[in-house]
Write a structure and sequence with these properties.
- The protein contains 7 helices and 6 strands, in the order ββαββααααααββ.
- The protein has helices at about 15-20, 55-75, 75-85, 85-110, 115-120, 125-130, 135-140; strands at about 1-5, 5-10, 30-35, 40-45, 145-150, 155-160.
- The strands form 2 sheets. The chain has a 4-stranded antiparallel sheet with strand order 3-4-5-6, with helices on one face. A two-stranded antiparallel sheet has the order 1-2.
């Protein structure tokens, strides 16, 4: 935990009871970032679907990408001024950057770490055929993202997927 202008960032995630009961892994991931100008807390929730067997990795990638993209988009004072003047435009651009980068990263992960026969176990044959044909690899990493960002007296939240950011 670190502090900026009396703000403290923290993150945490834990396996849920339903996952424990079903013998499933924790599919959630959280992260935080803070420096002298910006504070970020982010959490990503895996889909809990047998066809999304790499949701845990997708959630980790989502959190990492989200922090990276916020820092890239809000890298200078002009960008922060623009955010304060036109938050909808900048936040929409940021969401698109996160989604685009996440898609690329999960496709790279699937290429570097091909799906295994063990991962295919229990999936419908048509799902396996689709994945083996190179289609819908992003779905396997499916997750949602909720993030809160504080920057120079201004804060905003982002929600990608289901869930609620309130």
């Amino acid at each position: 935990d670190l502090m900026i202008n009396n703000y403290i960032t923290y993150s945490g995630h834990q396996i849920g009871v339903s996952h424990i009961d079903k013998g499933l892994q924790c599919e959630d991931f959280s992260a935080n970032y803070i420096d002298e100008r910006i504070a970020i807390a982010v959490i990503s929730d895996g889909h809990g679907d047998k066809n999304c067997f790499r949701s845990a990795k997708g959630a980790e990638i989502a959190c990492t990408i989200a922090i990276e993209k916020v820092n890239e988009v809000l890298c200078d004072t002009d960008a922060i001024i623009e955010l304060k003047c036109s938050p909808d435009r900048i936040i929409t651009e940021l969401e698109k950057c996160i989604i685009h980068s996440w898609n690329q990263c999960v496709l790279d992960d699937a290429r570097i770490h091909p799906f295994t026969d063990i991962e295919y176990q229990g999936l419908d044959d048509n799902v396996v055929l689709t994945l083996k044909s190179g289609q819908k690899h992003q779905k396997v990493y499916g997750c949602t993202l909720i993030m809160c960002v504080f920057v120079e007296g201004f804060w905003f939240g982002i929600q990608i997927g289901d869930g609620k950011c309130i």
